[in-house]
């Protein structure tokens, strides 16, 4: 049921008082003693005006007091709310309070949704982390137990098992290093060391860094550019990490005798960098989650490659902190292309 506005209620009350005083004056005039004709009208009108003013004042005080208590508990208005109401009518006060409460509620709803999302993220992250660490830790445990139970004396396995345990240790170390890097990126997101540098030189250095891995898989690495001396304004160390991660992925998920190309070109004030390969490719259904921590397209395949599942998460973090975007184009079985841009220096 919709109630009329408070000012209208007071008005109806005053009208009722007017009617009642008029009937009472008439009754007095007819049955008790004669009343002067001017008083006949003045008494009811004065009564109604008195009721109107008094009720308006009292109701305003009451509403003001109650609202200030309410506002104080939801903390959306100044503590001394009487100041805030000075220019407001009684109806306005109530309408504004309704609106403020609705705003407050939708803000609370948003806050709750955000907290729930963070909680889910935290739970999923811890689950993933435990899962990632479990495999190498269990295998180290297995090798150590076998060695302790007599394997240490067995020349055919002792060295082999120690080597395998060492590979698993390396895997744990690389997961921890990547995690450490992500955490640092989150903490120092604002502390970017922006400097102008030669993008082509950096790309060549990164190619050199992964050359050995590429050779093992007979993957050729190329750098394409239309102009020389392409300078960007960015954090050199972090961009080196981005390129290395993308190059490493193109090798891990590339086919033997394949090809990876870094293309650098300038579009207006931006330098666009593309890392493309003709590897196994990614189905586009994976695109929305590809840059999430620990997300893998195909669980067993990638673990086999020894990736931490954090490479693209780091890449995205770095590009985001440069206020730039990274995008992916890929077709399953054909190849992938990762593209990002940086400010031209
Ligand atoms: P990982 O350590 O598993 O490589 P990333 O975050 O670097 O983790 O990559 C996430 C997933 O995206 C990989 O597991 C892989 O399935 C897919 N991926 C990344 N780059 C490529 C690529 N160039 N070609 C095909 N798949 C890729």
Please tell me about this protein's structure:
The chain has 345 residues and is α+β, with helices and mostly antiparallel strands. It folds into 3 domains: 6-87; 118-186, Helix Hairpins, CATH 1.10.287; 194-343, 2-Layer Sandwich (Heat Shock Protein 90), CATH 3.30.565.10. It has 9 helices and 7 strands; from the N terminus they run H-H-H-H-H-E-H-E-E-H-E-E-H-H-E-E. The longest helix has 59 residues, at 90-148. Adenosine-5'-diphosphate binds at residues 249-250, 252-253, 277, 279-282, 290, 295-297, 302, 307-313, 336.
Q: Tell me what the CATH architecture of the largest domain is.
A: 2-Layer Sandwich
Overall average pLDDT = 88
First CA to last CA: what distance? 66 Å
Q: What is the number of independent domains?
A: 3
CATH top level assignment of the largest domain = Alpha Beta
As a percent range, the share of strand residues is 5-15%
Q: Briefly note the CATH topology name of the largest domain.
A: Heat Shock Protein 90
Number of helices in the DSSP assignment: 9
**Parts with pLDDT < 50 across at least 5 consecutive residues:** 78-83, 300-304
Order of helices and strands: HHHHHEHEEHEEHHEE
Radius of gyration: 38 Å
Structural class: alpha+beta
Helix content class:
55-70%
The CATH superfamily title of the largest domain:
Histidine kinase-like ATPase, C-terminal domain
Largest sheet: 7 strands, mixed
The hetero compounds bound to this protein are: adenosine-5'-diphosphate
Shape: elongated
Work out the number of β strands. Answer: 7
